[in-house]
Amino acid sequence: MSKAISNNASVSFGADFKEITKMRLTVSVVFSSAAGYFLGAPVVDFVTLLLLAIGGYLMVGASNAFNQIAEKNLDAKMNRTKNRPIPAGRMSVTSAAAIAISFTILGLYVLYYINPITAVFGAVSIFLYTCVYTPLKTKTPLSVFVGAFPGAIPFMMGWVAATNQFSIEPGTLFMIQFFWQFPHFWALGWWLYDDYKRGGFFMLPTGKRDRGTAIQIILYTIWTILVSIIPVFQVTGRLYLTPVSGVLIFLLGLGMLYYAIKLYKKRDEKTAKQLMFASVSYITLLQIIYVLDKFLRVWI
């Protein structure tokens, strides 16, 4: 009996550990960093790539843990988050803080080992997310703008980890993911509007699921598409995209724009959900196309 209880406790802690660090989200961020690394690396060093993945996971996991500590009372009010470890009472604030602090220290150390610039961007990311974005979420819709900065750092940080310098190339990667976050998070905010309202979060630019918000989603979707194909024109240093890949990304962008326009017309939760998933597909496939484009050019 005691062994069964111990096993159940281990499973429960493992599940809560994944939840407090938001493992699925964190893995997607690590994927973004890896894509940036592949794009920037003249020669792939798999040790550095592994360190980037570990350091990135630790930093993002720390940010998520700090976020859940700060929002524990608000999370308890929302259907989407009320079963998280802290509001559900399965994990204490002290335990969550221990995870967050240890992840921060270890993450900074690992990223610094790669190079100091990468560590600086990692530190900036966690500071903006936990100390600026998180408290602003209940005060102003501008929180999405602030949150877009740490959210855009991983793609860029991968290039910096590979080259030990910041230049126009990682700046372009930053801008792609920066603009992408607006239609993504506004679609999410529209879809889960009632739940966010219960928690007191301001996610939509006008504060409402209205025409103004829908128009801004369309505009930022267009900006995302345009920034994504700039490397085709050979104005972004070593970051170059062939016309064929540029066309593929443009078509993917039109798919996301289709749902943005559809949301403007229908203004319903179903379409907002479709747009949110379309945006996830867009940024994932974009990063894959960018990396494949680079290596296919080298091999061919």
From TrEMBL:
Listed Gene3D superfamilies: UbiA prenyltransferase (1.10.357.140)
Pathway listed: Porphyrin-containing compound metabolism; heme O biosynthesis; heme O from protoheme: step 1/1
Domain of life: Bacteria
Record GO cellular component, one term: plasma membrane
Membrane-spanning parts: 21-40, 46-67, 88-111, 117-136, 143-162, 174-193, 214-233, 239-261, 273-292
GO molecular function: protoheme IX farnesyltransferase activity
Broad class of the protein's primary localization: membrane
PROSITE patterns linked to this entry: UBIA
Catalytic activity: heme b + (2E,6E)-farnesyl diphosphate + H2O = Fe(II)-heme o + diphosphate
Record-linked CDD domains: PT_UbiA_Cox10
Membrane topology: Multi-pass membrane protein
Subcellular location as annotated: Cell membrane; Membrane
EC number: 2.5.1.141
Keyword Membrane: yes
Key words, A-Z: Cell membrane, Heme biosynthesis, Membrane, Transferase, Transmembrane, Transmembrane helix
Statement: the UniProt record of this protein carries the keyword Transmembrane: yes
Pfam families assigned: UbiA
Biological process (GO), any one: heme A biosynthetic process
Listed InterPro entries: Protohaem_IX_farnesylTrfase, UbiA_prenyltransferase, UbiA_prenylTrfase_CS, UbiA_sf
Family in the record: Belongs to the UbiA prenyltransferase family. Protoheme IX farnesyltransferase subfamily.
NCBIfam families for the chain: cyoE_ctaB
Function description: Converts heme B (protoheme IX) to heme O by substitution of the vinyl group on carbon 2 of heme B porphyrin ring with a hydroxyethyl farnesyl side group.
Other noteworthy facts: Carbon 2 of the heme B porphyrin ring is defined according to the Fischer nomenclature.
Protein name as it appears in the record: Protoheme IX farnesyltransferase
Gene (name only): cyoE
